């Protein structure tokens, strides 16, 4: 049986000197507050990352995106699932929806590090591929999400934002379970 978790804040103090004279004007005190441990239980998630590898993502942008994705992979639990879809002119699924065991995390991180930039931006093709992956889940976790990492506008496939959104919304209505779609804009000095 696991030990009971504390629900109380704990305060500890350390003073600069063990004893202080009556005429001391000030002393330093360090206070440390320790919060109770929180049980790390949450609903398992299915995450499909859609990753822009077009030529405009070179340099800092691709490095930041790889770092962000690798951090995200480390936060996933064994019963979470991850899929990686990359796109430039072409759309490729690097990793099908896979439970994130320790071994799978190593594989996902290696795949992320192997991404090379080139070509145009077929954003619509990549989003629809991600939706196909979500729709094809045989055993779906209750929370399904698509996270789009990109720095710009589509210049291949469906180009108009309104048309992409119309297609996306139509596709989402066909899903048996809801899918959340998030976008992270990768800009020169960070994520937007």
Automatic annotation (TrEMBL):
PROSITE patterns in alphabetical order: VWFA
Source organism superkingdom: Eukaryota
VWFA domain residues: 46-186
InterPro entries (UniProt xref): CLCR, VWF_A, vWFA_dom_sf
Matching PANTHER family: CALCIUM-ACTIVATED CHLORIDE CHANNEL REGULATOR (PTHR10579), ZINC FINGER (C3HC4-TYPE RING FINGER) FAMILY PROTEIN (PTHR10579:SF43)
Protein name as catalogued: E3 ubiquitin-protein ligase
Source organism of the structure: Acrasis kona
Lineage per the UniProt record: Eukaryota, Discoba, Heterolobosea, Tetramitia, Eutetramitia
